[in-house]
Design brief:
Length: 200
């Protein structure tokens, strides 16, 4: 009787362990989620979705929130420097070539410079609020390859760059087979878009 009870307990333990293991195995990893999202995206655009054959998916790059913060700051700094040099040129016109001086343009440039200064301050503030989250991945870039029939019915190999947002959904931000159509810093960083909308 004791041996039977022990065997039943061991059997139940084994079944529970197998059940827990199989549940854990069913959780898809990042690559699998990106593959699924990419397949859904591309099949909706294929001539013959039934001809789709997966070849490979490979992670090639990731962008951190801190990368996006620096990228945005550099853009605003560059714009501000350009406006500042234009303003200095106009100020020289005031004494050197008065006919070229335009007070309205001076006011517009001053307004743009102030706006960009304000935005840069707010970006720094958002970066401080993020704290350690600045080091989290904002987006991933994958190379996604598959075969499928083209418009003439010939099966061809296709290769796309796929850019996703962050965990846990890894939604497709951009999918292209042209390098110049890839986003340098996709997905921004938390609070950025809302802040820009308020400061436009």
């Amino acid at each position: 009787m004791k041996k039977t009870t022990t065997k039943i307990a061991i059997g139940l333990f084994a079944l529970v362990s197998i059940g827990l293991t199989s549940c854990a195995e069913k959780e898809p990893n990042r690559d699998e989620i990106v593959k699924k999202n990419a397949e859904e995206y591309i099949k909706s655009k294929m001539n013959d979705p039934k001809s789709y054959e997966f070849v490979k998916i490979e992670l090639v790059d990731s962008v951190l929130y801190s990368d996006n913060i620096e990228y945005r700051k550099e853009n605003f700094k560059r714009d501000m420097e350009y406006d500042q040099s234009s303003l200095e040129r106009l100020e020289r016109y005031k004494t050197e070539i008065p006919s070229m001086y335009d007070e309205q343009e001076v006011q517009e440039l001053n307004s743009k410079i102030e706006k960009n200064k304000r935005i840069l301050t707010k970006i720094d503030s958002l970066a401080s609020e993020l704290g350690e989250r600045k080091n989290e991945v904002a987006s991933y870039t994958y190379i996604f390859s598959f075969r499928g029939n083209n418009a003439l019915g010939a099966k061809i190999l296709n290769e796309y760059a796929v850019q996703t947002d962050q965990a846990p959904e890894y939604k497709i931000i951009n999918m292209t087979d042209e390098k110049d159509k890839m986003f340098l810093n996709p997905n921004d960083f938390p609070g950025y878009r809302e802040m820009i909308e308020k400061n436009l």
